[in-house]
Each structure stands twice: as structure tokens, then as C-alpha cells.
Amino acid sequence: MKRVSLVAMLVLSSCQSDRPSPKIVLGPKPVEPMWSTYVGCSGGIEFSPGAVTVARRIVDEYEIWKFDAASGTLLNYATKSTRIGRAPNDTPADLTGGSTKPLDASKVGALTPPGFTPVVATDRFLFARRTRTRLQRLKFYSEGQAVLIDRPSGKAVWMDEGLDVAVIAALDRVIVCRDGQTSVFARNAGRPPEASEFYTAIRAGDISVLRKLYPAWRGSRIRDVDGKVPLSVAAKDGRLDIVKLLVGLGEPPNSADADGFTPLMMALHWNHSDIAEFLLDAGAIPTDDAPPWGSALRIAVHEGRRTIVSRLLRAGAKIDLVETRSGRTALHEAVMYRNYEAIEVLISGGASIKARSKDGKTPGELAPGDQCVVHLFGGGLIKERPSICRPIKRETATFVPAQPLH
């Protein structure tokens, strides 16, 4: 986050207003980015031929995500202790006529909403931004909004808002990034409407519309706006009928989302074991190396029952695979989530009870006071102590990307 002196804080804080900014109303034909990701660029952004690299801070390090500029596919993931650059600033530019020129704000003033500053103009679009500074805990935060104007109609067709919003012209793309989101547009295009309608049909379970739009979608194979492939969208929503239809139409069960998350991992995360079983039958491989998510088995042992955990092991999942960041194994995870069935299956399958995580703990040491855990690690079975080994009832966990710390 941008910081200023204490004197400036005191001066500017007297000028702050808590009044909400005037609302932007989108027109009847919204435009979506070619692709977007929940990874923001507060830790810096870099460009190379065909790629966009963004960084975000997680605890005491930075996650570095390198994406294909055209599709948003994850090309590389790494962590490092330093930023890859400063948080980006706007790059005012006029991209009309296929060239790059300095932006003349007066030429697009009539299209710019009140309170906004024009940043990038193309033949079809105008990207504009507005910000205000807020003081919290003796730090200033730049809140902002970016709006996309369709120049022929003069209507707002897309908007994003958050901290440290910046609009950048690079790589024949226009990139809007902030703390928690990066969205990428072509110079004069967003996502094809057919692609958006196709994914809407998957979520709605509308088989007839899905069949109608599938041939057109297959020509582009564009992912959903957040990088998901069709099978992942259906798996997340628990739509087994749609998963079966997509596989029948030829969708590969091992196709991965832009961030490396597979449909099988999605089904396991949302605890749809019926879909996970079907995908395994269709040839899905229990991924062991999908950074930063770890293994499919590690996801399954959070809440998965005995049947699906056993099935993953039979399908070749590595029982003692170590997660890079924490050094934990699937057995560590099962104990953390008190998934007694998974603990029993893993121990009976030969999982190491002596494996130590990066903080030096064995799986059993993560729950020294849990009677069922002690019983299972002592060689016991759930059926021998059903009263203390009752499954813990919980709602399916919602995946919320970790937020950067400031």
C-alpha cells in the first residue's frame, strides 16, 4: 500500500469523506474480461512476451503467479521473500488506430463519467478510474473504481473496485489490477457473449442450451471468466448430470483450470463424492503436483468419507506426499480436520505416523487431547470406539482466497 508522512496523514484525514461515491449503472450489454484471476498485483506486476506475472503478499512472503496473457493459463507458480516490483500505476495511453500514443483526455472527456479520469482509450473502449484516500490505523489506503465505457453507445459495460486500482496498457492488452483481482481485456474486445452464455447454461443446468452452444464454445475452448473449465464449473455446483454430459461430449476429465485446479479437485473440495467417483471412472488422475493446492488426496481428507479416500489411494494417489509450504502430509491434514474415517484409511494404507511437518510435529501431535485420534494412532479402529469417534458435523468449507496483508 502507498504510504505518506504523518503530517500529510493529518492534513488529508481532515478532508476525508465517508459519503459513498456516485453509483455507476451498467448498460444492457455488459462486457466481461477475456480472463481474470483473484490474484492481485499489490506485490508488483511484470510483463514479458505473451505473459503477465503478478505478485501478492501472503503472511511473510510473496506468491508469484505467471499467466499466459491470452488465456490466463497458469504458466508458473513460485514464492519469494521480496516483491517483484512496486504496486503498478496507471499508464495513460491512446491505443486507437492500432498504435500507441499519449492520451489526450480532452478527446474523451464527453464519455468520461463524473469524478473519473480517463486512462486508456481504444477504438471501442474507454477505461477510466477514480480513487479516494482513506485513513485507517495510521495508514492511507487508496480505494478506487475502474469503469469500462463502450464508446459507440457511451454506456458503462463493466466495473471493478477495490484497493490500489490501476489501469495498464501492455502486451496489446489492457489490464485492470487491484489488491485481490487482475482482469485482462483485448484492445477492443472482452469475452465472446457465447462463452458467457455457455457457462451460464452449465450453472443453470440447462442441458438444451448447453448442447446448442457447445459446438461454438468448443471452437474457442475459452475458460470461464475466473479461469474454470466447464467440468470444474459443473463439479463445483454438484451437477452430476452436466458432468456426465460434458464428458460424453468429449471434455477431458483431467483438464485443469487456469490456476491448476482440476475438476476432480473441485469435486473433492466441495465434497461431491459422486462426481469425484464418476471422474475417476472416466480417467481422472488424482493430481499430486498442482501448486499451490497440493494433492487431490490432501483435499479429500478434509471432509471426504472412507469410500472416496480409499478410491483415491487405489487410483495411485501418493499417500505420504509432502505439501511444500507446510511440510504436512495427508495424514496431518486428516488429523487437523478430525476426519476419523480418513485417518483410519490412511493409517491402514501405510501412511507414516512419524512424518514431521515444517514445525516439527507428527500427525498425532496435532491433536494430543482427542480420544479418537489417540485410539486410532494406537492401532484401534472406529468400530471399537464408536462413541468417541463420531463424525464431526460441519458445513462444506467455502474456498476463500487468502488475502494479502498490509
Can you summarize this structure?
With 406 residues, the chain is an alpha+beta fold.
In percent, how helical is the residue content?
Answer: 25-40%
List the total number of helices. Answer: 12
Relative strand content? 15-25%
Kindly state the number of beta strands. Answer: 13
Termini Cα gap: 7 Å
**Assembly of the depicted chains:** single chain
Shape: globular
Low-confidence stretches: 6-17, 396-406
Strand order of the largest sheet: 6-7-8-9-10
Structural class: alpha+beta
Report on the biggest sheet.
5 strands, mixed
Note the run of SSEs as H and E: HEEEEEEEEEEEEEHHHHHHHHHHH
Any idea what the radius of gyration is? 24 Å
Mean of residue pLDDT values: 87
Describe the overall structure:
Among the domains are: 6-35 and 89-186, no CATH class; 286-406, Serine Threonine Protein Phosphatase 5, Tetratricopeptide repeat (Alpha Horseshoe), CATH 1.25.40.20. The strands form 3 sheets. A 5-stranded mixed beta sheet has the order 6-7-8-9-10. The chain has a 4-stranded antiparallel beta sheet with strand order 1-13-12-11, with no helix packed on it. 40% of the residues are buried. The protein has 406 residues and is an alpha+beta fold. Residues 6-17 and 396-406 have low confidence and may be disordered. The protein has helices at 6-13, 193-204, 207-220, 230-236, 240-249, 263-269, 273-281, 296-303, 306-314, 330-336, 340-348, 371-377; strands spanning 35-37, 45-48, 51-58, 61-68, 74-80, 93-94, 117-121, 125-136, 139-150, 155-163, 166-170, 173-178, 181-186. β4 (61-68) and β5 form a beta hairpin.
